[in-house]
Each structure stands twice: as C-alpha cells, then as structure tokens.
Amino acid sequence: MNRAKHIAIVMDGNGRWAELQGKKRVKGHEAGAKVVKKVTTYCANHEDIERLTLYAFSTENWKRPRLEVEFLMKLLEKYLRNELPTYLENNIRFEPIGDIRAFSKSLQRTIKDVKEKTAHCDGLVQSLALNYGAHDEILRAINKIKTSSENITEAMLSNALDCKHNVDLLIRTGGDHRLSNFLLWQSAYAELFFCDTLWPDFETKDLEQIIKKFTKIERRFGGLK
Ligand code: FPP
Q1: Which of 15, 71, 99, 225 has the fewest Cβ atoms surrounding its Cβ within 10 A?
Q2: Whole-model pTM?
Q3: How far is the CA of 188 from the centre of ligand 1 (A)?
Q4: Is any ligand 1 atom within 6 A of the Cβ of residue 36?
C-alpha cells in the first residue's frame, strides 16, 4: 500500500465560494484560512503524512487587484501570528518555500519567526508556498549552482530547490485540472487528484477519501509491475 508521505494542495475556489454567497472574494480567503488550519492539524495527526505543502500565494498572484493582494498579505501574517501555538501543540515544523523577499519587512519577520520557533518540531513539516512559482524556483536553483564548472546533475538541482522532496499526492480543489506552476519538478511522479469542491468547503473527510484511493493505486514510477 502506498503511503502519502508528501501531500501538496492547490487550494483553489475561495473567490467563487464567496461570490456564490453574495460576499466579497476576500471572505473566501478568510474561510480558506480556517480550512488550512483544519487540514494541517489533520495531517499532523496522520501517521503516514510527513509533509504538507500548500499553495498560498503564487508569483502570478501579484496580478490580482491591489486590495485583494493586501488582504492576502494581512491574512497570512495574522494566520502565522495566531497559529504559532497550533504549530507547537501539534509538533509541526513550518518551512516556507518561495521567494519571500518581495514581502513587507513585517511579514518577512513573522515568517522567519514562526520558522525559527518551530525549527525543533519533528512531526509534520508544513510548507506554505509564498510568492512561489515552480519556474522561479528552478531558475533560482540553477543560478545558485551555475558557478560550478561541473555539469549540473539531477541531485544538484534537486538539492538547490526550495522544496527538495518529491510529492506523492497532489490535490487541486475548485474544479480546474491544471498545475498552475506548482511543484513541477517535485511532482514528476505524483498522483494527481482534482476535486470540484471549492477550498472553503473542503473537509478532512474529503482528504481522508482521497488518501484512501491513493493508497490503492499501483505506482510504477516508469517501471513495470
Ligand atoms: C485560490 O482561490 C486561492 C488563493 C490564491 C490563495 C490561497 C489562500 C488561502 C487558502 C487562504 C490564506 C492562506 C493561509 C495560509 C492563511 P481563488 O481566489 O483563485 O479562487 P477562485 O478560483 O474561485 O477565484
């Protein structure tokens, strides 16, 4: 049986969820943050899951209206400040990925603070992808190692990425069937699950069902049975 050691999620559908209820899009992000907490806590208490990587803000999300971007930044900062006890109580290590230099100094400090204060936790590793794009991650990795005169190997590149771990199970909520520049290198052999549920409606029982299906899939990694 497969173990879903590394789960990655594209949390899509916040805006539509809010609009369907006649609310402003940002209300969907607020509701989505609550699901982040629930899903993270569930994963922290699941014996198979070692890593959970969540797409929280992409390198493309800067194109959204200024007010929505500002709201997302404030929400992230609030989430990280408020949920530090949740990280610690559940032994969760916070390891952000992405290029956070584009964020405000205050948000960067909060990110670093939660990272440092949870560095000793040896349970689930929760990575929030923040100002993250797989193309940007790969380019930054290449630029880090290109000074060496050796040929770049797969291991060298993999080690230079923000996320150095292959994804076992990649889930996208919200009905679209695309990867949107998320963990492209690490998902080479990931099993992909797309569900129509909008992220604020996603429940731990939905995740449980997906994991159950995942455990039964025959993964061949390009080989034969
Ligand atoms: C996609 O929904 C979601 C995002 C761009 C941001 C994800 C953010 C959260 C889940 C909440 C905040 C996160 C944390 C960690 C506190 P969308 O706005 O693209 O939805 P749509 O496709 O319906 O428009």
Answers
A1: 225
A2: 0.96
A3: 24
A4: yes
